[in-house]
Amino acid sequence: MNIFQKLTEKPWLANNLSSDNSLPTLLMEVQSHQRWPAKTALYFFLAVVTVIFLLFTITFLSRSQSSDFQALAGEPWLPFTQANVLWLNTGLLLFASVTLQFSQYFSARQKTHQFLIAIVFSYLFSAAFLSGQYSVWQQLSNNGYYISGNPANSFFYLLTGIHSLHLLGGVIALLRVMLHFRKNVNLSLLSKNIQLCATYWHYLFIVWLFLFALLTRTTETYRAIALFCGF
Predict the structure, then answer these.
(1) Among 5, 105, 115, 158, whose CB has the most other CB atoms within 10 angstroms?
(2) Which ranges of 109-218 would DSSP assign to H, the alpha helix?
(3) In terms of Cα–Cα distance, which of 103, 65, 75, 129 is closest to 192?
(4) For 99-125, what is the mean pLDDT?
(5) pTM recorded for the entire structure
(6) Residue 17 pLDDT greater than 60, yes or no
(7) 198: exposed, middle or buried (Cβ count in 10 Å: 0-12, 13-18, 19+)
(8) How many CB atoms lie within 10 A of CB 222?
(9) Which class in CATH covers the domain with range 39-229?
(10) Whole-number pLDDT of residue 35
(11) Quick one: which of 166, 176, 175 has its CA closest to 200?
(12) What is the pLDDT of residues 23-44, one digit of tens each?
């Protein structure tokens, strides 16, 4: 009878694998590598946004070769020859991104007090960046650089405005996460959502660096880039 049982034994069934101590570990590893739909959706959205900004960049470089195009930097009297305010805004967005990364770190480790401090600073730095961008728009307008006065003006308002709208959308999404936190949701359960927000902020910071570098170049630089790209 024992010989018959041995011959008919099916070691691949679960009742035989249950005695294997490595099975729970294996299942945990498989689960940890399962797809995260929200993260996939975020990456898809960021890919679409990247394409949009690239298309705007191509259009901008092409338009920069027109005779009516006057860059906002290059001459001492032009507003972005010394872009100190934009540098300040860049620092604010960097701090917002860093503090949000810290909030993700604290949420994963159940450090509620530190998490709240980091989130508050993330909000403050993000709000200060948006306020700083609005201040730049006001300064340009007060100095006669209206949105319809020059193609370079139009593209500056357009690109920085779209970027600010994306950041404002991120602030609203982060506010939604905090509303869940107020409902006494476990902080560790919010860790993934905070991670998505941090990834979004890092992306917007990189996009802003690209826009900053693009919009504060001289006419000669645009001409050289357009020539290299075949415009």
Answers:
(1) 115
(2) 112-142, 151-182, 191-215
(3) 103
(4) 90
(5) 0.82
(6) no
(7) buried
(8) 21
(9) mainly alpha
(10) 59
(11) 166
(12) 444 334 444 444 568 889 999 9
